[in-house]
Structure formats: structure tokens, C-alpha cells
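Objective 1b of the project was to move from sequence-level analysis to a structural picture of ligand recognition. The entry below was assembled by the postdoctoral researcher (A.K.) and checked by the PI before modelling. It contains the amino acid sequence of the target and the SMILES of the bound compound, adenosine-5'-triphosphate.
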Amino acid sequence: MRPHTLRARLVTGLLILLALACVTIGVATSLALERFMVDRVDQQLSMTVGRFAASLEHNLEYGEYGDSRGQSLGTLGVRIMNGQVTNAAVVAPNSTRLNLSADDAAVLAAVPMDGRGHTVELSALDDYRVMAIKGADGDVLINGLPLEGVNALVHRLQFAEIVVFAILMIATGIAGTIWIRLSLRSLERVAATAQRVSTLPLASGEVALPDRVPDEDPRTEVGQVGAAFNRMLGHVGESLALRHASEQRMRTFAADASHELRTPLATVRAHVELARRDPGDVSEGVRHALKRIDAESSRMSKLVDDLLLLARLDAGRPLARDQVDLTRMVIDATGDARVSAPDHHWRLELPEEPVTMIGDADRLHQVVVNLLSNAGAHTPPDTTVTVSVRVPGPRKAELAVTDDGPGVPEKLQKELFERFVRADKARSRASGGSGLGLAIVKAVVSSHGGTMDMESRPGHTVFRVLLPSI
Ligand SMILES: Nc1ncnc2c1ncn2[C@@H]1O[C@H](COP(=O)(O)OP(=O)(O)OP(=O)(O)O)[C@@H](O)[C@H]1O
Ligand SMILES: [Mg+2]
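Corresponding predicted holo structure:
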């Protein structure tokens, strides 16, 4: 039940303090008033003390219940002889007779004879202020006045205070809530801005940070928070801009470098091909060397092409917008895969209707080819590879490549779509894999507004691509 917001806590604290103050004031004023009134009763008692009680001493003259003439209503008189109450009377409109219980008699008998006022509680009467003096014939005479009036006055004061304090608490609660809300409004603005920043994708690319928090008086705490927050936003903005610029430079460099490498590579390949076609009179060793140069330069060309493609995808170059028949593309690519991996079993699962979409035909083709070549290259012979196209919902197309090979190693799965990630580095390099294939697949798919996922365990590996279709 503890309040959570700062606002609620401040208001609660304010109200608790106010309540404490009210209680203190209430207690102090009623105590003071009671004291004052009781003092007045005591004064009255000491002026009249003994008069009514003394009349009780003279049974013959005034009767057993004393002389009530000139006494105010409620005046109590008691005569105590040897610790026993002999006469007790109270001034009332009709009779002054008073029947005291044994307890009351004991209470009265215990009143010290010091000429000072004492408050007693009698069951026959209400609260009384009594004063005891020594009588003429060795007895004790107690005179008393009712405290009824004093109590009533104190109660009225307390009631009035409760009403006033309640109104005060309600008014303070409302005014305090409004006031605290106003004071904390700028803090809420800071929170709202921070909230907006926290939802921004800061991981990469150019980020537009939200507006700064409006300036407040920097002498206030809220103003200081706002200013610090603005400075932090400034720093973050600057570093993001720096990072973006450096990313941009890296991309340009990668694109330029791979582009520049293509021409000399093409020349090397052309010359090697020429030399291999017409080797002339050279030894077997040279022939072998030429073969190796040919194979490795082809691999390098592919690598350079992949790098260039990735650099272009990174740079967000606009894609071609072709009408692509996904079904047709999958049939062709599977046909090619059958030729290049004849030891695998290739199965096709296609919908009745052709699935078409708008996209970059060459790049989408590369997606299919990369997935199929992985299913061919990273699984043993006799593996069954199923290539399926489905329409999982309106304007959606799903391409899935499933194989029952050994699967992707567990520790590789998380970063499989990163660049240059491949299972067995040494072996893959020899077999030609560079680890760029899936990175390209992912980049092409996301540049088409699609998503990709993968699931792999021994005997069941599936790469699924979800693309928007028409
Ligand atoms: N169907 C699959 N079965 C088992 N492992 C796979 C499969 N597909 C991919 N892998 C693993 O994922 C790694 C990364 O694949 P990726 O296509 O990115 O690179 P690559 O095939 O090694 O090289 P590249 O495609 O650039 O020639 C592969 O090296 C392989 O270890
Ligand atoms: Mg591959």
C-alpha cells in the first residue's frame, strides 16, 4: 500500500506532517483550556469551600441534607467522620439527598485534606472537583463542584477543532496535489523525453534524437536534472553522429576496395584461362599451379562480389523493382542444385498458384541459391532437402529450405547470420565457403522488408524466409 509516485509520496508526507501538527495543537489547546477552567473551579471552591458541607454539621438546624440556600446547583457537600461518610448532599432543584455507594464513599474519604482541588469520579454523579478541609468538630468536610460544564466546553472545543482540521486537511490535500503536480511537471517532461530516447533504435545507422527538454531554472533541482539530461542527449547525439560517419566511411571503403579489386582479378582470371587453354610446353607442376591459380582466383572473385554486394546493401542502394515469380525461381534454382549436388535428394513443395512479388530478381535469386547451396554443401550425401513455398497469410510468401542433415553446431546458431561465420574455418576455407552466404541472405531479405529465421537440430534444419508478396 506504499505510494509509488513521488507526487503521491510528497502529498502523503505533507498530510502526515499536517495531521501531526493538528493533533499537537488540538491536544495542547484542550489541555490548556481544561487547566484554565479547572483553575477557575478551584478558585470558586476555595472561596466557598466548606459552606455547604459545614451546614451538614448542624443536623438540628438545617436537617440532614444541609442548607442549600445561595448555593449553585450541583454543589456537593460531604461530611466525613473517622473515615466514614456521615452526611452527603448535592444541591438539586427538588431535594439535596444523595445516596453514595460504598466505592464513592471510599473515593471521597481518600481525598487529601490539603486545601487544593482534586478531580474525582463518582458513580452517583459525574466528574467532580472536590476540596477537603477540617471541620469544627474533628470531622472532614468536602465541598465539590461539578466539572460537567468544563468537560462540555472542552468537548465543544475539540469538536470545533476536528471540523476545522478536517477541512484544512482536505484543502491542503487538494491544493498540495495541484501544487506538487505543477512543480513536478518539468520532471515529467524529462521522463517523457527519456522514454522516447529509450525506444529509439540506437544500435546502428543515423539516429534522430528527440528534442531537448525545455530549459528550466537551473537553480531548481528539476532544472538541474533537465540540464544534465540535455547535456547527456547532446553527448549521445554527437557520438552517434561520429559513429554514423565512421560506419559510412567503412562502407564506402569496403565498396570501393571490392570494386577496385574486381578489374585486376578479372584480368588475372582471363590470363590464367588463356594460359590453361594453350599451356604450350610446360611441366606438370606448372600445369598444376595454373589450375590452382584458376580455382583460387574464381573463389576470390566470388568473395569480392559478395563483399561488394554486402557493401551496397549496407549503403542502402535502391533495389530493382521487378515482378518476380518466386515459384519459378525456386524450381530453376532447385534444378541447378540437383546438378551440382546429385548425391542429395531434392524435393519441391509448391502451392497450386504461382507466388509473385515485387523485388530485385537477381538478389532474390541469390537468396535461394545461397540457401540451397548451403543445404547441399554442409550436409553429407543422401541428405533429403525439401524446398517449399507457401502463402502463410495475405500478401505474404514463405520460402523454407529444410534438410535432414547433421544441423548447424549449437554455438554457431546465434551468430550464423553475421559475416564470415562458418562452422569449421579450416575445412570450409578449403571447400570454398567464406561465411558470407547467410549474411547476404539476411541483408537481401531485410532490404525487401522481409524477415528470416532458422531452427536447427541434428536431423532437422530449416531456414525460413518470410517476404511480402502481391
Ligand atoms: N543447411 C545447413 N546445415 C548445416 N550447417 C549449415 C547449413 N547452412 C549453413 N550452415 C553452417 O553455417 C555456416 C555459414 O553459412 P554461410 O552460407 O554464411 O557460409 P558458407 O556457406 O560457409 O560460405 P559461403 O556461403 O559464403 O560460400 C556454414 O559454414 C555452415 O557451417
Ligand atoms: Mg553458404
